[in-house]
Amino acid sequence: MFGRRGSRIVIATVPVVIGVAAFAPASLAQAVAVGPHQFFNGEVFSTSAAANQSVIEVACAGASNTGHPLPGQYVEVTLVIPPVTATVGYTGDDAVEIDAALNYTEGTLSVDIPIATLTQYSVAASISTAITVPCSGTGVMTFTPYPDEGGTASDVNVTFETSGVSPGA
User: Fold this and answer.
1) Whether residue 22 has pLDDT greater than 60
2) Residues 54-76: pLDDT tens digits?
3) Number of domains in the chain
4) Where in the sequence is the domain holding 85, given as residue range(s)?
5) Is residue 140 part of a domain?
């Protein structure tokens, strides 16, 4: 009798488990592709656990005014589910990617450095250690949908902070 009742419980439980699984969100292992009519946030992460978001840590030697970002820093975009605030980006009618670019001023010059082309949400793209940036100051990481017909960029203010002498210098 126990065996019979036990099998009924198992059989009755299986459809419930399958039903719940059907309504579960997509696996975190499956990234969501950038596409039209989506809201998003751009994000910048630095190498130091103690550093706040939106800091780009820079290896600068001596009294140098410029240096290179430390390895392990990255950008990414995250999908935002409505309702949204006015500060998020929007992919518009045709976007299939979001381009990240670092913008800052150096004297009277405006500098615009392409950082990454992001085609999926929540997938990190490294900030190149080969680019040259200020050792201190501020800039903006702009995340622009492409094509941007009807789209809106997501801007993230960044601070450049020196870490001292660059590795290998």
Assistant:
1) no
2) 899 999 988 889 999 999 999 99
3) 1
4) 26-162
5) yes
List of residues 6+ apart from 40 with CB closer than 8 A: 34, 77, 78, 79, 80, 88, 89, 90, 91, 98, 121, 143, 154
Tens digits of residue pLDDT in 119-166: 999 999 999 999 999 999 999 999 999 998 999 999 999 999 997 554
Residue 145 to residue 90: CA distance in whole angstroms: 7
Q: Does any domain span residue 15? A: no
Backbone torsions φ then ψ of 5, nearest 5 degrees: -65, -40
* Six token digits for residue 14: 């299986």
**HSE-up of residue 130 (Cα within 13 Å, Cβ side):** 2
How far is the C-alpha of 139 from the C-alpha of 101, rounded, in Å? 10
Give the pTM: 0.77
For residue 163, what are the contacts with CB-CB under 8 A and spacing of at least 6?
A: 57, 58, 59, 60, 70
Q: How far is CA 132 from the centre of its chain?
A: 21
Domain with residue 37: its CATH number is 2.60.40
Model pLDDT for residues 31-59, shown as the tens digit of each residue: 899 999 999 999 999 766 555 568 999 99
Residue 41 lies in a domain: yes
13 occurs within a structural domain:
no
d(CA 16, CA 39): 33
